[in-house]
Amino acid sequence: MTGPERVPAWDPSLIPDPTAALEAQLLVFAKELGEGYQRERERAQHLEQALGDLRQAYLQTVRSLALVVEAKDATTGQHIERCRLYGMALLAEMGMADDNREAEFGFLLHDCGKVGIPESVLNKPGPLTAAEWRVMRTHPIIGYQLVADIPFLRTAAQVVRCHHEMFDGTGYPAGLRGEEIPLAARVFSVVDAFDAMTADRPYRAALPVEAAVEELQKMAGTQFDPEVVHIFAPLSERLIPRSAA
Fold this sequence. Notes:
By secondary structure, the chain is mainly alpha-helical.
């Protein structure tokens, strides 16, 4: 008859260490999380690149459309491209560029409605008659009708429609006043006037930057948004240094 079975001594090393197991799980989780983050980052970069490419394609398309207008109006030169650059710089200075990224399309296309204006009116060498002015003043509406139904130009369409509105309500076509006028259109009216004054025209030489800014300041509150003019004044000399004006 055998004796009682001997029970092995208790060995605590045989019990799994829960801390080690948890650390191993956390390491696996961290690795998977890092790999997932990297995949999402790469996907976001690819998407950002695709959106950038698409936006560049839109910009080139809009430039091509704007060149049609520029070719018809002999006085514009590089006016539309300068207005785009000045306008986007001003929006950035105001901290509003991200909220108005499509505004540059409107800056380029602001006069697209002139394709519907007879050249006898558009390029008339002398003053326009009252009837001819009524025809000329239809170009914001014509332009708006051309672009309003294009999805990526809906914001730009507001610039096209409102770029001749004045801060005091005396502009056209709707007589909008103050902040009734979209911000991008208020910005455009300032840079448009500034470029018109600081560029050579067949009938006069370009004004110096400081003289053009003085004119803008005189009309702040009537033709122009005074806050926009206030922000643009110091920016103007960075856009056109005095030595280049």
